[in-house]
């Protein structure tokens, strides 16, 4: 992470702009870092292409010079490309390389050891283009759901590793040449010195990936941010945070500030997570309607999600109740058998005949419970939380065990019984046969 302040710098630089189509807020914060190295741009209507919007976040490293230069000039290099009129994606890719070459030819920037990520969103004629080089990220909320617009460039990615190796570099400690933790960036000219290959083939390249989308009335908002946010929260978690804030009527610039404070580490001893510079842009789609229309759409989306989660919890609780009920039924049967054993001279108490709590949990579940668990696991509601509650239920299905009325001596009895019969003893129903019960008494 590098050097850190003894206390975080939490003062924020926030901005706001709006027209009939977008309500935009942005904010940046230095945090625990010694210096602020990020830059960002939001332009509702480009001077060289009126009606086209441009939003970008630049996460600098090793200094702020490259990020600052990109924030002022990248959009100009893109709109000046001859392909821009008919092929915006190609213009974005070549514009990134043109800017990088211009900085390389600039003596003041060429010797800089700094670099910067760049994630750019251009919205032109109803189409969205997202160009990304590095590990900053852009996401969209479309009809209440997540759409990831960019993908992080890390040296450990197979495609990135192959390019690094072909250019004469290597990956060590998850870094390019053991130095840089991302594999595409503006600047970082010390890692772009192979004169035998093109700029986009260098071990660290400024050449971006580009994603395209058709923008419709279903689009709710965009979030564009540096990795200081994404290292702490997942894309889905950020979407839900912003969605819930909009549902409360909070304006975008305040949402950006709240999101950064949510991600700020309480101290600087967390391995860098939550200790980075942070920059966020939230772009709300108005579609010519008041902001309150978006607020209502987000309220509905939040309510749907809460209802779905409530339904999943109810389904899980119902299965747990069935499981508990059947376990108790098994305990009752075992208790009744224990009473019969007592009459035969065994001397066990009814209340203790079911064994310990751990032994109860290992009892064989009935087919109806297996079916119920499978239904929840296969249902759409179960898929989202497959790593949590429902998986625990299905993992316990059909575990063979031996039921006995003994508590303290049961493991020894089971082992002796298995040795005698040369096969595991299992219960196929909740009612053990009288023969099993008497055999167990004889062994004791």
From TrEMBL:
Segments of this protein annotated with the region Disordered: 309-444
Low complexity bias: start-end ranges: 324-333
Feature: compositional bias, Polar residues: 393-412
SMART domains documented for this protein: PP2Cc
GO MF: metal ion binding; protein serine/threonine phosphatase activity
Keywords: Hydrolase, Manganese, Metal-binding, Protein phosphatase
Residue intervals of the PPM-type phosphatase domain: 23-285
Annotated Basic and acidic residues bias: 314-323
Cofactor(s), names only, from the UniProt record: Mn(2+); Mg(2+)
InterPro entries linked: PP2C, PP2C_BS, PPM-type-like_dom_sf, PPM-type_phosphatase-like_dom
PROSITE patterns the record matches: PPM_1, PPM_2
One Pfam family it belongs to: PP2C
Record-listed E.C. numbers: 3.1.3.16
Record field: compositional bias (Acidic residues): 433-444
SUPFAM superfamilies: PP2C-like
Family: Belongs to the PP2C family.
Protein name: protein-serine/threonine phosphatase
